[in-house]
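To whoever is on call:

I kicked off a structure prediction for a single chain this morning and the downstream step that reads the tokens threw a length-mismatch warning. I double-checked the sequence; it's 86 residues and nothing unusual in it as far as I can see. Pasting both halves so you can look.
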Amino acid sequence: MNHPLVWMPRLAELKREGRDDLRQAIVRFGGSARICRLAGLTTYQEWHYFERQYELLVDLHDYLDKFTPSSRSLASRRRQQQHLNQ
């Protein structure tokens, strides 16, 4: 899943990308949560929460598709059963 354009990278990611200067400035000016609030960005934790919820929704949808008979297959089975009972 792609990150939104307003997503704030984690401090470790900034350091890994060689932007320790940005990491230090963020810490100096109040930390990620404060910077996100002031700049209108989404924190990593908040975005990750919604990402996990979306992945859960997709997994549940796949599960239901796999294990829940569709109304079309139920109707088909009823017709087959009626045909066998005749």
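Update from on-call: the warning came from a stale cache, not from the record. Cleared it. Sanity check on the structure: The longest helix spans residues 44-67.
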